[in-house]
Amino acid sequence: VRPSHHLRRVQDIHPPGTWTCGDMSDGSTGHTDDSPSLLTSILRASSASGSSRGLAPKLKASLDLLLLGLRPDEEYAEAGKELDRLAASVPKSSCGRGFQKGDVIWKCKTCAIGDDTCVVCQECFQDADHTGHDVSFYISRATDGGCCDCGDESAWDRKGFCSRHGRSHSSSEALAALPPPLASTAPPLFDTILSEVVRATASGASSSRDPADPRLVAAAVDWIEKRCGSFDGLAVLAAQALCGPICLPAGTPSAPPPAPAAPASGGAQAGFGASGGCGESCAPVWESEARDSGGEPFPCTRGSILELLLLRDVQMRDAGREVPKALQDLYLRLLSERSFKRAFAACYTANYGALARAHCEAALPNEDRHRGVAAEETLFSSQISVQFLNRPGLVMPLVQTGFVRTLLTTMRELHASDVLLWKPRRPAGRDWRRQLPLLADLRFVLAIEGVPKELLGDVQLLQSWLGMLAQMHGVDTQERAVHEHVAHENEMWIGAFNFFIGLQSLYTVLLKPLLASPALATAPAAALSAPLAGHGAGVEPCSLLVLAITALVEREMSQPLSQPPLVCRTAGCSHCLVPPSRAATTISFHLPLERFVGAAVQRLAAARGGEEELAKVARAFSSEGLRHEGACGAEAEAAWLAAAEACPERAGLSAAGEAPRTAWWRRSAAEALLDGPLQLAAAAAAVEGNLWVRNGTAPRQQVHNYASTSPPLCRLMADPDRLPGQLGADLWACEAG
Question: How many Å apart are CA 170 and CA 234, to the nearest integer?
Fold first, then answer.
């Protein structure tokens, strides 16, 4: 390679005589202590030369020379071919190739271990024997978080490995297989490149030296990814560098605060990432983690370069896509290394809430309040989490340390905040698309055997799940236009429908244990007393269905007493009270908590012995219900007095001298189960009766999808709404009896 313009400038800064170069033929390393500063100078000199277009290939050629222990100004045009020749003689454990748009991706149900996210690339599939297997393929429509699983024993059967992959070896064996120059030249190069990445991604801080051009930094990261794909040992070294502490000069303004001290106990956490390169302190921990045992603790990545880069993902995209895209490809490449997969899973889940919020705060195009980063472009939205959340050996330890609680808490906090509000030039609404990655992660976790039973058996987790469903009740509520036709028809309902279809499809996965053990629906989850439980009813108060129905009633109790109940005047009725109808003015098609109760009832009805469990639930509730109190306005006093006179045991009003007067009303479990589905059914009938025509076509389109049989969306919406109504009618009969 003849010295280019930018390399000549480097020679002026670092004359060749100031550093040494070994001869590779005699087995020496060829490493020079000056190579990190030389690489830094190359990056900065290239940036100072003006446009970086066309410099990336020259930079990668220079990095190949430095990796071989040669000077960038030497006449050695075969550096890349020499590295490829060395790579052919080194054993390879897995493929790990990241999928790009247009790639052919193969599935094999015979070879896949786990869910249908385990796939291989075209080249590995054609080089393996899948005769007689159940195979299919699809074309990747976009660059996502997937990579080839060939060679990964946790995802693919060894019989389906191609001839190039599957030579399983430990991290120490991968390092030992590296040619002598690479083992010592790679760590300082990796550390230098990652330091430049940290500088290039810093925002609002000026380093003592101008940072390198981000496009050249991205090219350097691409070079790491390419070379790690050729040598497993380099992948180990790059992973150790990423998981090591951030090493920037103390005076650098962009340097983050020092990392917290690692725990004193637990060998895996104490030593992991103790040095930025391949120091001896890292090796024992790295080797222990390579066994990928579900019972081992996860490595500590607090204060690491990996953690910093994950947290800066959205911030990096403000300045351009080159560096974050290169880092994402590098992560996918390194995730084929089992030790790094554990480290990445630990770091990703430890910062899950912050990553999810940053993703939801990322800008959509043409929004004024954000910075201009599309939400679907973030690392979080790429679903890179599928690389570890579908592995039982990784997920179960995460679940035991509270990851399911983290998922549910994150979804609740995001729903309660305003980060999902979207205000383009149309009626304001909630951008449900941004929460779809969280829904997908929850699906991955619940698909792991043992996780649903863990959630159903932990009363705090179950209450968090039910609280999330109650919080989402009645979202996307729409008001009926009465006098004038709406100026803009609301299309935000489409995102809400897609989100809740995805959420309610999780019920089947979560409630799967009920088919085998219907008693789980009435078995105690913990020693916690539910307020609606009857005494001596033969069922513990903390069961799944009792807690779910209690959450329904408590949700109703949390609503203000804005309107008094109505006195039923039906012939033969003993003056019972019914909720005031709101169907004439508002409509919401989303009742996730009622549908969860309906899904549980459906599972029990299909299971042997389920009817007996349902009978226990019906006997578990007293007829009195909960007392709902609230201030009574002067305009509603007459209606409250009528309700109190008709049913003094169910409703009442404070003395006339009090100001303001307080009203109370006892709500039963049966009423809570019947209220939502019946009001939605009445509202849907009003839409079909052309009472919502001034709202445009959106209400009718929603009713059509709500009850659609082709596609069968009714199985997730209309049909589950009937089941809590039927259960409520049974409970009402029990209360009346």
Answer: 13
pLDDT at 249 over 80: no
Structural contact between residues 31 and 69, judged by C-beta atoms closer than 8 angstroms: yes
Contact 240, 277 (CB under 8 A): yes
Cα angle 228, 445, 106 (rounded to 5 degrees) comes to: 50
Contact status, residue 337 vs residue 239, Cβ threshold 8 Å: yes
pLDDT at residue 154 tops 70: yes
- Which tokens is 316 given? 């990096």
Give residue-wise pLDDT tens across range 128-149: 999 999 999 998 887 666 788 8
What SS3 state is found at 666? strand
Peptide bond into 260 cis (omega under 30): no
How far, in Å, CA of 57 to CA of 223, rounded?
10
For the record, the structure tokens of 627 come out as: 């007392």
Residue 517 tokens, joined:
């053990």
Q: Tens digits of per-residue pLDDT, 470-479? A: 999 888 888 8
- 27-to-75, 78, 87, 182, 333 alpha-carbon distances in Å: 20, 19, 17, 11, 29
β-bridge partners, 147? 98
Helix axes 718-736, 592-606, angle to 10 degrees: 80
User: What is the token pair recorded at 230?
Assistant: 């050729």
Q: Where are the alpha helices (DSSP H) in 435-528?
A: 436-446, 451-457, 459-471, 493-510, 512-516
End-to-end CA distance of the chain: 93
**What are the start-end ranges of the H helices in 607-668?**
610-619, 637-646
Handedness of CA 152, 153, 157, 162 (dihedral sign): positive
Task: Note the pTM of the prediction, 2 decimals.
Answer: 0.78
Q: What is the sign of the dihedral through the CA atoms of 329, 97, 334 and 377? A: positive
Sign of CA pseudo-dihedral 283, 288, 291, 292: negative
Element (H, E) at 218: helix 214-230
